[in-house]
Design brief:
The chain has 3 helices and 9 strands. β6 and β7 form a beta hairpin. It is globular, with a radius of gyration of 18 Å.
Length: about 210
């Protein structure tokens, strides 16, 4: 991943941090989380539901891309009840395209994505648990793979495992789809560290 992609990710993260600071004076009950981790990208083309499920559940990791600076940063803000908004930016390098085979030559396409998704917390449905925090999410975003840019719709799932009231591990998996039949779709899987922030005390850690 080149320097310009790194710079875009850093700029986005700083911008979201400043937005958090600005909103503090407007609503002291805002709840925020921030996180950083790594991501893996699985390239595919839209070819129907059967192909989608077969690719997702086959357990094959040979076609996953985790190259270059495969970083992902994200910021989440609680809105109301069990709904939050999650904004993220990620970079990677795609060397294995759709239908990758070990007999094929590797490609070398840069990958950059920004997205915003609504997250619905499932704890109310399965019973509140202080350390286990599963969710589903839906939204959209922008991706650039090589020289091709797309606006995507996305859906997926994730979970936070809280080790304490302030720090945990986040895992997430989603599918990003462009309605055009010739577009490039992709799965993105990520794992990282997530932190709670307490806006009522300006960036002091928030206990549960």
């Amino acid at each position: 991943m080149n320097f310009r992609v790194y710079r875009k990710i850093v700029y986005l993260f700083v911008l979201l941090f400043l937005i958090n600071h600005a909103v503090y004076s407007q609503d002291e009950d805002d709840k925020w989380v921030v996180g950083i981790g790594v991501n893996a990208v699985d390239i595919r083309t839209p070819d129907g539901f059967v192909g989608f499920t077969k690719d997702y559940f086959n357990g094959d990791i040979e076609d996953l891309n985790m190259n270059g600076g495969f970083i992902r940063v994200f910021v989440g803000r609680h809105i109301k009840n069990d709904i939050s908004i999650l904004v993220s930016a990620s970079g990677n390098t795609v060397k294995k395209g759709f239908g990758y085979s070990t007999k094929e030559d590797l490609i070398d396409d840069s990958f950059f994505a920004m997205d915003a998704k609504l997250r619905y917390d499932l704890n109310r449905l399965i019973g509140d648990n202080p350390w286990f925090d599963p969710y589903v999410l839906v939204g959209g975003g922008y991706s650039k793979i090589g020289e091709t840019s797309n606006f995507n719709i996305a859906a997926g799932w994730g979970c936070n495992f809280w080790f304490s009231g302030v720090v945990g591990v986040n895992i997430q998996s989603d599918y990003n789809h462009n309605p055009q039949s010739t577009a490039t779709d992709y799965f993105q899987h990520s794992i990282g560290v997530v932190f709670k922030l307490n806006s009522t005390s300006k960036f002091k850690w928030r206990g549960r």
